[in-house]
Amino acid sequence: MKILFVSPVGAMFSGAEVSILNLMKLLVQEGHEVYNVIPDNAPHIDKDYLRHMDTTGIKLFQLKTNQWWWPESKTLDISDLEIQASQQKNIEEVREIIRNEKIELVISNTVNVFQGAFAAACEKVRHFYIIHEFPFGEFGYYKDLIPLIDDLSDKIFVVEGELYHTLTNYFATDKLIPFIPYTEVQERPLKNSTISRFVSIGGINERKNQLELLEAYNHLNRKGIELVFIGGWDEQYKKLMDDYIQTHHLDRVTFVGFHSDPWSLVTDKDILVLPAKLETFSLVFVESVLNGVPAIISDNLGHLSSSKFLESGNLYPLGDGDLLSQQMTTVFENFDTYKEKQLLDQELARKKYNLETIYAVFKDSIEVETSIVNQKLSSKYARFLGMKFKNRDIEVIGKSQVVISASNDGLHSAYHEITKERMENKGSIIFRLEKEKSLKILLSEFPESYNKLSLISFESQREIPISISNGIDLDGVLVFFNNHPHILFDLSKVSGNQFQFFYEKEDEDEYSGHLFNLYENHKKISHEYNSVIHSRRWTIPTKILKFLRIRK
Fold first, then answer.
1. How far is it, in rounded angstroms, from Cα 322 to Cα 523?
2. How far apart are CA 340 and CA 508, in angstroms?
3. Which of 72-81, 138-147, 165-174, 326-335 has the lowest average pLDDT?
4. Contact assessment for residue 314 and residue 293, using Cβ atoms and an 8 Å cutoff
5. CA nearest to 116, candidates 25, 20, 31, 28
6. Cα(35)–Cα(4) distance, rounded to whole angstroms?
7. Beta bridge partners of residue 33, listed in sequence order
8. What separation in angstroms does the CA of 118 have from each of 152, 175, 176, 347?
């Protein structure tokens, strides 16, 4: 089977990427043809990720974009139209991949990506979502998108445990399939050491909550114990930690930074501490169990799920720094006991946690042909479909201008530029002419809809009607479905030489509604046309006429 994955970042620092990369590898081993789409991350390309694609035999597509995740996922300092243009271009590119490669199944890895879901619906191929995120906190934005996600999904794979139980409140359970994320851990001995350290692995940021660990470490009053952080960091959050370290004179804290193989830096005497506020399953904790490293973990929902599955881990109440400090002291002072238990947990985990067993649920669903759930595009899709953009379009779309030109002759003669201004959501432009008799106004470069377009003569204070446009008048709203929207005015019978032009655009949802209505009307007319030409009342007379022509 030809399977296309749509990935969220294209980098190995993401647990969701790591877990589903292993699924891709398994599917290749099983004889499937696997393709993968990621955002173009140049110049910050993860070469390790690209190496995995190449060595595994996965065909990779990197698409240029300015917003890969749902528009609701973050606020960017660019216009809505820029985002819309980029995303519609990406959807069209994924559709081309589906058609060109004859893709049979599209899988979206994480709830944050959607290009594959829309493309699959348009091309009428099966689509699976893989959800790793809770619908609250930093990913709370997608709660309002759940009806749309449901429409776009034939099956939804959800991380087993607390996330699965949470999402049963939002999706029908017959569509949800729980799974365990898989991470590959090499069976190799850790470095030998005689000294125990506290180690934390993962990106250093607000969600991972390392400041809570730092505070608990300070309360140990054991300044000789080293605390090591392995992972890249958010600059602002790192500054908070640096300030705390400086204020409390902590000189045994080390920041290693990102490392592609963090467990090569961990010793057989180390204690892992993971204070994250929210996880879905925590592959780092899974890796600690498989490596036989005692771990102290916060009782967030994801840690509860992974701890229950592996029957391992030392939990502390999230937000309780005093209890974390006590737990760290207990494990440090009784290290041999905790280490012995951890090695037993490691042995049991290795027996139940293997790639084929863990991902059998995916294999079963992929290889069993099912009917496509979604065959109809509803109005909820409209803002993502319809317009086609090129990279050049997206580069200039945020610089859109209103260009006013005039001609000394008729409407269809050569025009010369009078003035131009940056296109806003609404505005007015005052300008003066000499003896020009016609006017052409270019309304940016891209499709839009306008509930107000008016030209006023200062002398008469009357509105001059539009003579020609390449838009469609829909109940007083002028809608442009093509690039280069423009309007023309005949000034041959207008006195005066000073004018004011007013414009006001509709918002994205209103334009999308026009787009959808046009699509539905076209579908209806096409259906009616086909019903007529394929009817007996049409085909029989047509055959008779054709016969008579031949006889002549």
1. 65
2. 61
3. 72-81
4. no
5. 20
6. 5
7. 2
8. 7, 18, 19, 44
How far, rounded to the nearest angstrom, does the alpha carbon of residue 187 sit from its chain's CA centroid? 34
Residue 372 binned pLDDT confidence (cut-offs 50, 70, 90): low
**If 0-12 CB within 10 Å is exposed, 13-18 middle and 19+ buried, where does residue 462 land?**
exposed
Helix (H, G, I), strand (E, B) or coil at 532: helix
Q: What does the pLDDT read at residue 210?
A: 96
Residue 226: Cβ-neighbour burial (10 angstroms; 0-12, 13-18, 19+) = middle
Q: Is 197 helix (H, G, I), strand (E, B) or coil?
A: coil
* Greatest pairwise CA separation for the chain in angstroms: 109
User: SS3 of 167, please?
Assistant: helix
Handedness of CA 540, 541, 544, 550 (dihedral sign): negative
- Rounded CA-CA distance 331/326 in Å is 9
520: confidence class by pLDDT, cuts 50, 70, 90: confident
Q: How does DSSP classify residue 66?
A: S
CA 461 to mean position of chain CA atoms: 50
pLDDT digits over 38-78, tens only?
999 877 788 999 999 999 999 999 999 888 999 888 767 66
CA-CA distances (angstroms) from residue 7 to 22, 56, 156, 407, 530?
13, 16, 15, 52, 40
Q: How far is CA 375 from CA 112, 119, 122, 154, 372, in A?
A: 22, 12, 8, 11, 7
d(CA 486, CA 440): 7
Cα–Cα distance for residue pair 96/80, rounded to 1 Å = 24
> Read out DSSP for 136-165?
SGGGGGGGGGHHHHHHT-SEEEEETTHHHH
pLDDT confidence tier of residue 447, bands split at 50, 70 and 90: confident
Q: Name the amino acid, one letter, at 216.
A: A
Which residues on adjacent β-strands are paired with residue 178? 158
pLDDT number for residue 422: 83
The candidate with the shortest Cα–Cα distance to 59, out of 27, 16, 13, is 27
Q: Phi and psi dihedrals of 341, rounded to 5?
A: -65, -40
Structure token digits, residue 449: 């809809």
For residue 544, the tally of other CB atoms under 10 A from its CB is: 10
The pLDDT of residue 413 is 83
> Do residues 481 and 515 make contact, with C-beta atoms less than 8 angstroms apart?
yes
Burial (CB < 10 A; 0-12, 13-18, 19+), residue 137, is exposed
CA torsion angle for 105, 109, 113, 119 (degrees, to 10)?
0
Share of the chain above pLDDT 70, in %: 88
CA–CA dist 537, 124 (Å, integer): 33
Look at residue 527 in the predicted model and tell me its pLDDT. Answer: 64
